[in-house]
Write a structure and sequence with these properties.
Layout: E1 7-12, H1 20-29, E2 34-39, E3 52-56, H2 62-71, E4 77-81, E5 85-87, H3 91-101, E6 106-108, E7 111-112, H4 119-127, H5 137-140, E8 148-150, E9 157-161, H6 162-167, H7 179-189, E10 194-196, E11 202-204, H8 209-221, H9 224-227, H10 239-248, H11 252-255, H12 260-281, H13 285-316
Parallel strand pairs: 1-2, 1-4, 2-3, 6-10, 7-11
Antiparallel strand pairs: 4-9, 5-11, 6-9, 8-10
Helix pairs in contact: 4-13, 8-13, 10-13, 12-13
Length: 317
């Protein structure tokens, strides 16, 4: 039987309203589990919640908020959860058996779409299931795969030993995004592994299309601290930038005679792929047109983010 006293849930966020519903939904399943919330703003009226500790910081870094929380944590295991996610039944129980067997590694679970979404949320959720948007979508956005070792899963749903997290030097406080990618990369260099637990499910809320596109842009904007590392797997993240630069190279068709023979076939293949992915996931005609254009915007926004982030990053340097 899982001893819940050995676990602490750690949630970084900006303000209490970001995590209010998450706390309520956790408490429906786990009445007394310890929760640490690190945030930037908190009213005094919200401080008195049983077994909930609040840490107030000026930092905007998710990595630093997690590190601060772990420093005040005394439990054997820690759980990283996003503020817009909440657990399914047997969330901790299904992961704990792997924690006992798989030492010195992360147990990561999928973060799937919640039930009862509105139309915009449903469209965003379906788009995230496309390989054009999400790395390893079958592992992240579904829970039908078998338990296995994987190279990476995001920290929206992580279980790990507190001592192991500290032994790795915690997360890099300087990173505003991609702190989990950096942590797993450092972990893999020491031959530690990440294990996928398909039954350790959380429901990850989706927002508006505008918020989704903006989030993709911000994701790319803060990518350069990761991209400058000599990690072969980082080359995957250059794809949005390279494709954006390719699209912006259209004027070369008027300068170099043969360039249109390269440009338009590649563009055709891309649009055909987007079309097929849209047909794969759409559920009616109305959703088809929305998903088609949102898929394209979601591909381009991190490219713009990386492009503008390049000038910002090296300007600071």
């Amino acid at each position: 039987m899982t001893n819940l006293k050995n676990f602490t849930i750690i949630i970084p966020c900006i303000r209490f309203n970001d995590v209010r519903q998450t706390i309520k939904k956790i408490r429906k399943i786990y009445k007394n589990i310890k929760i640490i919330i690190c945030l930037n703003y908190l009213k005094s009226s919200n401080k008195k919640l049983k077994n909930v500790k609040f840490i107030i910081t000026e930092s905007q870094s998710i990595a630093e908020k997690r590190n601060l929380s772990v420093n005040l944590c005394k439990s054997k295991y820690i759980i990283f959860l996003d503020s817009d996610a909440y657990p399914d039944k047997n969330w901790i129980e299904s992961a704990s058996k792997f924690l006992l067997r798989k030492k010195n590694c992360i147990i990561a679970g999928p973060h799937i779409d919640p039930p009862n979404q509105n139309e915009e949320e449903k469209i965003i959720g379906l788009i995230k299931k496309s390989f054009l948007i999400t790395m390893k979508p079958k592992l992240q956005k579904q829970n039908n795969e078998k338990p296995q070792y994987v190279s990476f899963l995001p920290s929206a749903n992580w279980f790990l030993h507190r001592k192991f997290f500290n032994s790795m030097g915690q997360m890099d406080n300087r990173l505003l995004r991609n702190e989990d990618w950096d942590f797993v990369y450092r972990m893999s260099k020491k031959n530690f592994k990440l294990f996928y637990s398909p039954r350790s499910v959380v429901f990850h809320e989706n927002s508006t299309i505008k918020h989704f596109i903006k989030k993709r842009y911000v994701y790319g904007f803060h990518m350069w601290p990761i991209l400058k590392q000599l990690n072969p797997e980082n080359y995957y993240f250059f794809l949005p930038l390279f494709f954006l630069l390719f699209l912006l190279s259209f004027p070369l068709c008027y300068i170099i005679d043969f360039y249109f023979l390269i440009y338009f076939p590649i563009l055709f293949v891309y649009l055909t792929t987007v079309l097929l992915e849209t047909l794969r996931w759409c559920y009616n005609i109305k959703s088809f047109f929305k998903m088609f254009f949102v898929l394209i915007l979601a591909n381009l926004s991190p490219g713009f983010g990386i492009l503008f982030g390049f000038f910002d990053f090296f300007k600071k340097k």
